[in-house]
Amino acid sequence: MTANKWIIEDTKFEVNNVKETIFTLANGKIGVRGTHEELFEAETPGTYVAGIFDKSEAQVKELVNLPYFWGLRIYIGNEFLNPLECEILDYKRHLNMKEAAIYRYLKVKDKKGRITIIRGIKFLSFKKRNLALAKYEITPENYDEKIYIEHFIDGTTKNSKKNPAEKVKHYKLKNTKVSNDYIYTEAHTRESHYKVSIISFLDCRGNKISKDLDDSITQTVEIFPKKGEKFSVTVYTSIISNREIENLFTENLKELNKAKDMGFEKLFDEHKKELERLWKIANIDIEGDEKADKALRFNIFVLLSMGNPDDEKVSIAAKGLHGEGYKGHVFWDTEIYMLPFYIYVYPKAARAMLMYRYHTLQAAINNARKNGYKGAQYPWESADTGEEETPKWGEDYYGNKVRIWTGDIEYHITADVAVAIVEYLKATNDWDFFLNYGFEILLETARFWSSRVEFNSKKERYEINNVIGPDEFHEHVNNNFYTNFLAKWNILKAIEYTNFVKNNYPKEYEKTIKKVGLTEKEIKHWKEVANKLYIPWDKKSHLIEQFEGYFNLEDKKITEFDEKNMPVWPKGVDLSNLNNYQLIKQPDVIMAMFVLPQEFDDITKKVNYEYYEQRTMHKSSLSPSIYAILGLTIGNHEKAYQHFMRTALVDLENNQGNTEHGIHAASAGGTWQAAIFGFGGMRIENDTLSFHPWLPKHWKSMSYKIIFKENIYNVFITNQNVKITKIPYLK
Amino acid sequence: MTANKWIIEDTKFEVNNVKETIFTLANGKIGVRGTHEELFEAETPGTYVAGIFDKSEAQVKELVNLPYFWGLRIYIGNEFLNPLECEILDYKRHLNMKEAAIYRYLKVKDKKGRITIIRGIKFLSFKKRNLALAKYEITPENYDEKIYIEHFIDGTTKNSKKNPAEKVKHYKLKNTKVSNDYIYTEAHTRESHYKVSIISFLDCRGNKISKDLDDSITQTVEIFPKKGEKFSVTVYTSIISNREIENLFTENLKELNKAKDMGFEKLFDEHKKELERLWKIANIDIEGDEKADKALRFNIFVLLSMGNPDDEKVSIAAKGLHGEGYKGHVFWDTEIYMLPFYIYVYPKAARAMLMYRYHTLQAAINNARKNGYKGAQYPWESADTGEEETPKWGEDYYGNKVRIWTGDIEYHITADVAVAIVEYLKATNDWDFFLNYGFEILLETARFWSSRVEFNSKKERYEINNVIGPDEFHEHVNNNFYTNFLAKWNILKAIEYTNFVKNNYPKEYEKTIKKVGLTEKEIKHWKEVANKLYIPWDKKSHLIEQFEGYFNLEDKKITEFDEKNMPVWPKGVDLSNLNNYQLIKQPDVIMAMFVLPQEFDDITKKVNYEYYEQRTMHKSSLSPSIYAILGLTIGNHEKAYQHFMRTALVDLENNQGNTEHGIHAASAGGTWQAAIFGFGGMRIENDTLSFHPWLPKHWKSMSYKIIFKENIYNVFITNQNVKITKIPYLK
């Protein structure tokens, strides 16, 4: 590991799908996996554009793996220089997080003894999100031969490349044009009819040949460098889609020409400037713990890579723009795990993400109606239109079909969106958003819950039965604590804000109430539901039962941990019947305490933490960060640090074993929250900030910034001191 | 090297384009390069169907690299089992020449320690040339996991894959259909509008999924084998084209179903039976020299793989169906180097090859007319229609355009075709062919020469100026010996056969003469031309000048040889001005003595052999075999053996350095001729066979068979004895 805190380093040249994820570049609009140019066929390249989904033969809509536009092949004479058949004399790849750029140095010797050095820089512009730039310097170290540089855009990419049963080709290339000045093609998605326009230009001295090869397009230069003489190659690419504009060819050619006119260096400069602006607030420094410091920074880098203030019709997927896990769908992960980062660090991106929920509100209303409910039921998995995209069927190890129930009954997502609306408002004072959009969501979600509950006349209470809570080991449970508690909170917040808006913003109130069709009678019913909604919380013992009957299940505690410090299944557990045990996948009761900390006293937090922590298998990457934060709240510091490192390293150390399918975006958000709300101890109490930090002994200091309402708070923490300064936040 | 004389063995699993050529399977109709299934992307797969050419953006028509139909990928769970990322525990690949089948055994251990054994057999049926069969046995040696077997037909193959400047995609996939019972697609060539229909079926227990992935089609089975339990996979493929039939889908589905009904074993049996029938005559045994024995057999195997008695509209390309060198074009190589093998071993194939020249006779007549001549001028390079396909431009090392003149002025091909007609007739007595087709060719070629000559009134002679002879180091020469000598021979033979046919087959004579429009006056002119055609042959000194002025060129002799025993350029030679030296690329005067041995006495052969041998660089694979044969004729035995081994090993040892681009088909034919006409000493003298063998000392014996007229001659030679038996040849 290099000592430079901004650098993630790779020193082994190899086919490695995990590193493809880690070295992904993304700018909120485009994501390109960190595939080596030369290993295009052997690895799992991925090129994604936010919002471009298609179903075709897939079970559900997927974020489309679009044509790969960063293809580059070097030929010495007519021999393709394939590093896999060469001796690797030297290799280094750096992800420079400060610059959001990949630097690569590769020195290879082919079978004929010819040594070639290839240096490259790549970035996806944060300033002009449609632009992708790559620049190479190539040196024929010890030979004097003709070299071809072939840049290609490959149209054979498929989703689920490594799963022949699920593999789908989602697009066809259309309107391909090649000339000396550009190569151009469009990927038209087969069912959803999106059109993604890609234009590219290879800037290099030498004879140029452009080719339409049907499934790919290429631009080649023929060069006769002298031995030892280095030459440079720049690839300009612009990607736009019919989500933004209709006249694709004309507009994209303009974009390309503007980029060429500016040149690589200026484009790189303006990109770095934008990054500098973002890092100025986003960066967190931990002195005394290099590993934690860098791991945390990587998670922040991932978060920065996914946000996009300019597009309010997309949101962030569970695997970011970094891979195809979960099909590019948006889950509660976005609002509960990731959004706080954006709220406090990149509020314009946060607003755009919430606007995505507003633009899909009608779809959520339709979804509720389809299921026999009122209001807005947000889909468990959401793509471009906001319809429910959860697959109905999965497969167990033996190829047997297994029904997936989350899309049907994991309702809490709807309350999670409501929580996000309120948290955003509290931190930003963005009443414009709230009054025009957020308030409406709050009302429609409250309305959903009020229609979803069932009245148990025997027990004189409302219940929410047959659900899945955050802990997905237990399906079809009744009165899940997290679900019921957040549903109640959602209804109460809707009532509270209805009153507040009515009194303070009567004009906006009228507009929204009219649109939503809310009556006094309905509000009365909401109050009744909230009052009588059953919450399985024994206030005397402080211990909360995750759902009705949970405490009667067989109780196996975790006692062993593997080499990655992850829990080992207790002996005798039947993995095909997890419904029968108290073991949980991820926090549920504890989750409620994390989401709504002000609703629980310290002793309750402590009692429940201690109970559930021993029973949590962390089979979701959403789990450890929550235990880190709660652990710090209740004073379990040592374990909190372990949990923090687990979540911070989830991708860098691939400790969930599935990083190849994309980044753990929720875990990245969870890591940031564990740093800020956990070690950094930031809380909102009575609408103001307070800080109760705790640092591990070996940490000398921690410093971070957050934006709260009109100010940027600069927080510097040592084990002796907390120093807070604030400056106005200029939006 | 395995001791089994029928086996060519490969023991190293690697990306290797030379081995792809050597392990090519071909059956005269289809050729598939020996690409490893798993290395499809990294190697240079080639799938060719005889007669399917297309130009599109290429400089000239090319034999199209069609969709690759032998794709197979194994996935353990959802991980592609890529041997390049595995430890290769064991590997062996055999080309079984007796069976024209590839056997492969591969045992690999992946990064997770899972060991998989893959055994495979593949063949292209010699009995039903449209069928391609592959069978695998797969064993998950030490694991118990779900396995996917994905069979694919890939439609992204391109010509000149490794040359980005020349790369062309010649077809588009059309009419793709997938079902549980087959996957089907058609490759439609873009400019020539051929349609090649490919249908395939993956036979394996398990759930089957068929997919149209736009640029490829797949059939996948999901299997849950037990640890150590082997399972089998058979792929049935049938390939037909609109060259044969119009109703492609219906007919090819029938073909597939017939094949499935018969099953792999029976199809393999009938294929092997056909091979046995061919080998019965074709095989040559050399006792006492394993290396020579096997190398010779490999060349015979290659020749058998290229012949096809059932298709008289195609002929054999310079690189066979084994690669893309020379674009799949037919040269004089076919008639002069390869055809004798077919004449004496596989006469039905020989006839089909000559019929190709008959079917392209009109194109040759058009070609002559276009160039201002009469009669038939055969193209230097010929493809499907018989038009001239030689590229006009090449590129030198520095990317400068270089004019290629062979298509304009390497005229001797026309006489070479005439030679082949006469040789075929003499050996087979196939008067049916001669009277209906061959005679017409003989007349039109004679007519061409009579119009091509120029009268030099000063010297009172006919000349043929501005030509390239077989030795291509010297361009734009006047009165090349080989050209003039064969032109004269061509005219004289035409006159001779005109008389003979007139006297013996008057009806056929009338028909042909009428068709050709031949008059007594024209024949008189032919005689005049033949009499006065200048032949640069000083009968006193015996030494023949390759062309006028050759002896005045700077004379550098070859004195050094490289590690492959190939000549090294003499010091001081300027490679950019080879016209200035007596050094030659390949035999020219000696070539005439090889083609028409009866026209030269022994002393002339010896004098010229000794002169030219020292000046021949063997920069063509067509060279060594000729020196082997002539060497044996004149008694230069030791060098003859060296030349024989050079030509026999040209591909197995890649001694021309370009085997990756395809097999050296002419060299294969030359090897056979060196064996039979050289060591085997077979000659036709006065229309009967005679034998003057000579064997190297370490050869214990040599045995071969040839078909001559109505008999099969079985020849057994030792250093003491020649034993000849004959049995009737049943056509």
TrEMBL record, chains A, B:
<dbReference type="Pfam" id="PF03636">
    <property type="entry name" value="Glyco_hydro_65N"/>
</dbReference>
<dbReference type="GO" id="GO:0004553">
    <property type="term" value="F:hydrolase activity, hydrolyzing O-glycosyl compounds"/>
</dbReference>
<feature type="domain" description="Glycoside hydrolase family 65 central catalytic">
    <location>
        <begin position="297"/>
        <end position="673"/>
    </location>
</feature>
<feature type="binding site">
    <location>
        <begin position="585"/>
        <end position="586"/>
    </location>
    <ligand>
        <name>substrate</name>
    </ligand>
</feature>
<comment type="similarity">
    <text>Belongs to the glycosyl hydrolase 65 family.</text>
</comment>
<dbReference type="InterPro" id="IPR012341">
    <property type="entry name" value="6hp_glycosidase-like_sf"/>
</dbReference>
<dbReference type="InterPro" id="IPR005194">
    <property type="entry name" value="Glyco_hydro_65_C"/>
</dbReference>
<protein>
    <submittedName>
        <fullName>Kojibiose phosphorylase</fullName>
    </submittedName>
</protein>
<keyword id="KW-0808">Transferase</keyword>
<keyword id="KW-0328">Glycosyltransferase</keyword>
<dbReference type="InterPro" id="IPR037018">
    <property type="entry name" value="GH65_N"/>
</dbReference>
<dbReference type="InterPro" id="IPR011013">
    <property type="entry name" value="Gal_mutarotase_sf_dom"/>
</dbReference>
<dbReference type="GO" id="GO:0005975">
    <property type="term" value="P:carbohydrate metabolic process"/>
</dbReference>
<dbReference type="InterPro" id="IPR005195">
    <property type="entry name" value="Glyco_hydro_65_M"/>
</dbReference>
<feature type="domain" description="Glycoside hydrolase family 65 N-terminal">
    <location>
        <begin position="14"/>
        <end position="243"/>
    </location>
</feature>
<feature type="binding site">
    <location>
        <begin position="332"/>
        <end position="333"/>
    </location>
    <ligand>
        <name>substrate</name>
    </ligand>
</feature>
<dbReference type="InterPro" id="IPR005196">
    <property type="entry name" value="Glyco_hydro_65_N"/>
</dbReference>
<dbReference type="InterPro" id="IPR008928">
    <property type="entry name" value="6-hairpin_glycosidase_sf"/>
</dbReference>
<dbReference type="GO" id="GO:0030246">
    <property type="term" value="F:carbohydrate binding"/>
</dbReference>
<dbReference type="InterPro" id="IPR017045">
    <property type="entry name" value="Malt_Pase/Glycosyl_Hdrlase"/>
</dbReference>
<dbReference type="Pfam" id="PF03632">
    <property type="entry name" value="Glyco_hydro_65m"/>
</dbReference>
<dbReference type="Pfam" id="PF03633">
    <property type="entry name" value="Glyco_hydro_65C"/>
</dbReference>
<feature type="domain" description="Glycoside hydrolase family 65 C-terminal">
    <location>
        <begin position="682"/>
        <end position="726"/>
    </location>
</feature>
<dbReference type="GO" id="GO:0016757">
    <property type="term" value="F:glycosyltransferase activity"/>
</dbReference>
<feature type="active site" description="Proton donor">
    <location>
        <position position="472"/>
    </location>
</feature>
